[in-house]
Amino acid sequence: MIELERVARHYRLGAMTVKALDGVDLRVAPGEFVVVLGPSGSGKTTLLNLIGALDTPSDGRIRVAGRELTGASRGELARFRRGTVSFIFQTFNLFPGLTALENVQFGADVTGKRRARELAAEVLEQVGLGLRMGHFPNALSGGEQQRVAIARALATRNPVLLADEPTGELDFRTGVAILELLRTQADGERTVLVVTHNREISRAADRVVELSSGRVVADGPPRAGRAPIAELHW
Amino acid sequence: MAARFWLRWSWRDLRERWLQVVVIALTIGLGTGTYAGLGSTSVWRRDANDASYAALHMFDLRVRLAPGAFAAAGRLADLVGRVDHAGAIESAEERLILPTGVDASGASSDALTILVPGRIVGVPVGNGLPRVGAFDVRAGHGLTGADAGEAVGLLEYHFAEHYGLPPEGAIRLSGGARLDYVGQALTPEYFLVTTERGGLMAEANFAAVFVPLETAQALSGHARQVNDLVLTLGGDADRSLVQGEIERALATEAPGLGATVETREDDQAYHVLYQDIEGDQQFWNLFAALILAGATLAAFNLTSRIVEAQRREIGIAMGLGLPGTAIAVRPLLVGAQIALLGIVFGVAVGLLIGEAMRRLLEELVPLPAWSAPFQPRVFAEGAALGFFLPFAATIYPVWRALRVAPVEAIRTGYLAARGGGLASVARRWRLPGNTFGRMPFRNVLRTPRRTLLTALGIAAAATVLVGTAGMLDSFFVTIDRGEAEVLRGAPDRLTVDLDGFAPAERAVALVREPGVVDEVEPALRVGGTLVSGGTELDVSIELLDLAGGFWRPTVTQGDATGGSGGIIVAEKAARDLGVRVGDEVTVRHPRRVGEAGFETVEDRLVVAGLHANPLRFLAFMDLGSAGLMGLAGAANVVYVTPAPGVSTDEVKRALFAQPGVASVQPVGSTARVFRDLIDDFLGILGIVQLAVVGLALLIAFNSASISADERARENATMFAFGVPVRTVLRMAVVEGLVIGLIGTVVGLGLGRIVLQWLVDVLLPGTIPDITVSIALSAETFAKAFGMGVVAVGLAPLLTARRLMRMDVPSTLRVVE
Ligand SMILES: Nc1ncnc2c1ncn2[C@@H]1O[C@H](COP(=O)(O)OP(=O)(O)O)[C@@H](O)[C@H]1O
Ligand SMILES: [Mg+2]
After folding, report:
1. Could you tell me whether strands B555-558 and B597-611 are parallel, antiparallel, or unpaired per DSSP bridges?
2. Which of A225, A232, B486, B750 is the most buried (most CB within 10 A)?
3. If we measure between CA atoms, which residue out of B66, B107, B62 comes closest to residue B80?
4. Contacts B413 to A, Cβ<8 Å
């Protein structure tokens, strides 16, 4: 589903060059649930943005869902994002002028779904917010906002879900619940990539890719051992 | 903390937003510049008027005899020389002034037919005369003592200039007399060409010809006679005292002359030139205030946005225990920067507008003394406003920000997640279609304050546009109304003015003689005054056959035949006098005694009806009442229609050559004079409108740029979902269109109110003689919508480049 070959992303700041990513190789199969773990500044967001075609690599090749992203035009990249990946952000980034339902409907509208409203209602129901449909984001708690954001991403029905620190703004319990929700989405055709700096949270995954200073330093089951989400305690 | 620290920090703020700051400063500059530029003109005009009237010795008092009355040369001068305070009189000069027609076709190099009514003004020449009402010879040369009695004269400058006549040439006067003009001159009574029919700037349709007194006497057959006297008084003389003495002397010693004594203020040109300044100043102030209001709202919009963006930092500073004053420094510095830049722009804009106005004014009102010095006081006022307003616009949002509890301010996403506004109101308001269609409307409601500020700014601009354009519309509609009234029934009618009173049968025979006319109707036209309850209105009373003539005024109320001996007055005249149909008014009018003598008498007449003409000074009576004026069976006007197959020009030429005919003109020519007048002012209003369109564009750009900034995060989110730039732009355009529409509609409403004020309050002071009907043309609506809706709607397109170049990852990373 996702293939990265010797991918690098460098930022040039005056005389200095920051190597946000430095020769990353990564393959993710369809339906996988992968957690990308690493300390702040290790390049996690950069990696996610590259996979999501928001950013272009300084070097290397990226293929997602069979599409070669390297060298694609702006328009092609936008079309790719519309049809293949969906983002979930640390700060939710809901549209404050739209209700919960409409925020979700946006996801369906972007991909040109018919009966977008019904689809949105269904997905919102699915994330457990069936009763908050008409509320604006400012009336929702952080956890609820993140559920809406996930529903918005799900409503696109895109095969790749990219979540950047989706629990960063939430307390541990809420974060765990969100993680559970994301995990259940990774089945069949949908691939889910979750970025976090929280090692405890990473134990919920089957596979953890660890980044440090822009390089992959570990790739496999959680080091501290896989744990059912219900048992993640502090 | 050190001032340098704050300055450096605010310099960084400035660099980040320099474009917005420049735009706001320009907006403020446009407001203060308009104020200063237009305001300067008042000072210039007053100075120019004062200097010009002083330079050419405008009369202080003028003795005028009733039409048709003449005095032996020397008699008037002798009479005023014997009043008690005659010592105060510096100069007194007798003149002979008579109506005539002027045919300047021969002088025109463009082979134009120039056949207009006019006036022969005979004045003493040679030895520095005339001293009172001297000539400023603009082309050719002046008159000398040797010209006395010769057929030479000077053309009034405005008329000559209007038709582009050469400095010297030949003209014909009615009756066929040829006159060589040797120059073109300005003189105080014609600084503005006015006519007795209410025309201002009537140079296209009025020619004054200045000739030696002896020449005027010879041409008119009034040897050694005069009918006018002008005099100047010493600087410290008591004008009204001398005026009273002369009036009494005339009444006792020469009662048959129907003489009146006028002051400078009675001179129409003088009155208008000064009165206009006052009126225009109010006009400018109103528009400058509106433009400034729009600019201030725009400044407020930006500073609020800057403060909002800094709110988190302000919260942190508060959390760190920094005192409010220290926190306020940074945003206030931005306000100060805008203010200083605004002053610079304001001076520049003011100089530009001032220069444009100077050129227009000099062309419009050529005066012997024109200068347009820089007006430090007006500009200082503008600068003070320009400094104060943006500063005030910064204080409020800063104060508001400081009142927020620090915890609120530093809460993550405090602003990003703020859904609030009126969006919740709109929740139940289900718009059809997808979220892209809904979002613009929601955004309009979500930030009601920003929407309101932008909409009000646009509304201010639209108000000025509608006010100025609506005023023109109203004038044009009024002229059309007047024209329709005059042309009704017999549109090809011509007015033949005679050079004096003649027996009606002779007048009819005179115009029939050349065989060019079909219908003929003799009439009388005399000047008079309506008096009621302390109000006096000068009117031109026309006596015509109200029962059987081929034209009569439309009467909106009362009796169209004038009843028995009643008078029909304008609706506005009745209103101003406080009388109604059936009431009596005092009519002061001349009455003929003997063959050439006149006295002024008063009669009580019934207001028999009201007529529909917007000109207040028109009044009508039945010809059967001519006996009241001692003019039974006489005529000084004849209405004619061309004979079949004869053109208007042919009638003009044929009748012009008849002795005793002063002028021939189509009845619609008054409307033409008014149209010309308004055309002259299009330029000035054009400058105001240009400033206003500039303002609207700046506000639109500013608003679009602020919203692009404010929405950066939402836009980045949309891009992350693969929404194309054009879709995002389309939403911004729709949002702009909605705001523009709101602003324009509000502006149209306010503009209508302003127009009402202009017409009801301001205009009656400047042009009391015309009832202006309020009107707004489709073109004005189109202009307002074009400016407001299109400008604000399309402004987001200017942010397209910024959107396309947006660094999406960085924008998403930033936590507001
Ligand atoms: N636009 C940028 N300009 C310069 N450096 C950047 C930019 N974006 C990210 N970096 C740098 O790249 C590195 C990786 O950043 P990021 O991927 O955001 O890390 P993480 O998400 O793991 O915290 C950091 O050192 C960061 O400073
Ligand atoms: Mg990150």
Report:
1. antiparallel
2. B486
3. B62
4. 91-92, 169
C-alpha B602/C-alpha B589 separation (Å) is 6
Q: How much is the pLDDT for B170? A: 92
Q: Say how far apart CA A60 and CA B432 lie, in whole Å.
A: 46
Whether residue B437 sits in one domain with residue B356: no
Tokens at residue B260, please? 């009146």
Selected residue with higher pLDDT from B417 and B525? B525
* Rounded Cα–Cα distance for residues B633 and B623 (Å): 9
- Per the CB < 8 Å rule, is A79 touching B420? no
Helix axes A142-155, A172-185, angle to 10 degrees: 10
End position of a domain, from candidates B189, B215, B233: B233
Are residues B694 and B615 located together in one domain of the fold? no
The string of pLDDT tens digits covering residues A112-121 is 888 899 999 9
B130-186: pLDDT as tens digits: 999 999 999 999 999 899 889 999 999 999 988 889 999 999 887 778 999 999 999
Mean pLDDT across the stretch B91-113?
Answer: 83
The tokens for B755 are 């127009």
Same-domain check for residues B408 and B320: yes
Give residue-wise pLDDT tens across range B302-320.
Answer: 778 777 777 777 777 777 7
Average pLDDT score over residue span B558-582: 87
Query: Does residue A43 sit at the B interface (CB-CB below 8 Å)?
Result: no
Q: What's residue A19's pLDDT?
A: 93
State chain B's mean pLDDT as an integer: 85
Per CB-CB distance under 8 Å, the chain A contacts of B443 are 97
Does residue B178 sit in helix, strand or coil?
Answer: strand
Give the residue from A213, A198, A175 showing the smallest Cα distance to A88.
A175
Can you give the pTM of this predicted structure? 0.80
Contact A48, A56 (CB under 8 A): no
Tokens of B626: 């001519």
Q: Is the dihedral of CA B605, B607, B612, B616 positive or negative?
A: positive
Which of B666, B697, B729 marks a domain boundary? B666
| Judgement on whether residues B226 and B349 belong to the same structural domain of the protein | no
Same-domain pairing of B514 and B659: yes
Q: How confident is the model over A52-75, as pLDDT tens digits?
A: 999 999 999 999 998 999 888 888
Task: Report yes or no: B216 and B98 within 8 Å, Cβ to Cβ.
Answer: yes
Distance from CA of B457 to the nearest CA of A (A): 24
Look at chain B and report how many structural domains it folds into.
4
Do B434 and B369 have their domain in common? Answer: no
Domains along the sequence of chain A with CATH: 2-223 (3.40.50.300)
Based on the fold, state whether residues B320 and B388 are members of the same structural domain: yes
Ordered alpha helix ranges (H), A4-129? 44-51, 74-83, 100-110, 116-126
> Which atom number of ligand 1 is nearest to the Cα of residue A13?
4
Task: For residue B799, give both structure tokens.
Answer: 């942010």
Residue B244: inside a domain: no
Residue B110 lies in a domain: yes
Residue B200 has pLDDT above 70, yes or no: no
Closest CA to B600 of B64, B150, B51: B64
Residue B543: give the domain boundaries.
Answer: 491-666
Q: Which residue carries 């506000």 as its tokens?
A: B699
- Domain for residue B253, yes or no? no
Closest by Cβ to B435, choosing from A52, A54, A106? A106
Residues with CB under 6 A from ligand 1: A 11, 13, 18, 20, 38, 40-46; B 810
B451 and B383: one domain? Answer: no
Rounded CA-CA distance A134/A99 in Å is 5
Count Cα atoms within 13 angstroms, Cβ side, for B216. 28
Residue B414 — pLDDT band, cuts 50, 70, 90? Answer: very low
CA proximity to B787, closest of B700, B685, B687, B683: B700
- Report whether pLDDT(A99) > 70: yes
Model pLDDT, residue B406: 66
The answer to whether residue B254 sits within a structural domain is no
Structure tokens at B530: 């309506």
